[in-house]
Amino acid sequence: MATITQAKLPAPHRRAQWYLTRSGESYVNRLYAKFNLEYFDGRLPIYQVKFTSVIRYGVGHQAAGLTHRRTRTIWIDAFEVDQLGLMETLIHEMIHVSGPRWHGDRFADEAVRLTAVGAPVMDGDTITRSACRALGKFHRGERVEG
Ligand SMILES: [Zn+2]
User: Fold this and answer.
1) CATH 1.10.3470 fits 11-101, yes or no
2) 58 CA distance to ligand 1 centroid (A)?
3) CB 69 within 8 A of CB 75
4) Structural domain boundaries of the chain?
5) Using one digit for the tens of pLDDT, what is the confidence trace for 87-106?
6) Are 88 and 120 in contact (CB under 8 A)?
7) 89 CA distance to ligand 1 middle (Å)
8) Predicted local confidence at residue 52, as pLDDT
9) Cα 92 to averaged position of ligand 1 atoms, centre (Å)
10) Among 103, 2, 93, 1, residue whose Cα is nearest residue 39
11) Could you give the CA distance from residue 35 to residue 112 in angstroms, rounded to a whole number?
């Protein structure tokens, strides 16, 4: 039996609309539960994962995902993520749920740990802020949690 991470989702041109259906929402919430058990020992609180069409924060910033602690909601932009991107974005937001509010060294350390246990970690999430500075790069999300 195929696991949820190998589930066959609708074709790319129909996927964003599917994410926005109840089936899409059910899928991503089952993914959250699976990742919580597999990669976080089930210790993350229950969050609702919801799709939306555009995530904007601050002035002129856009993100594929956003964690809202007060309402325990993770928002994911349905039009920004393919199947792998959805999993990587979810893991990114779950790192925020686990503790780190910013993309600093604690965040990167957790991303390194998750990579080692086989989680789908986004390129760049394992790079520390100080490493970015050393490379003369602006570290995304320095101002606002995303
Ligand atoms: Zn973030």
Assistant:
1) no
2) 14
3) no
4) 11-101
5) 999 999 999 999 999 888 99
6) yes
7) 9
8) 93
9) 6
10) 93
11) 16
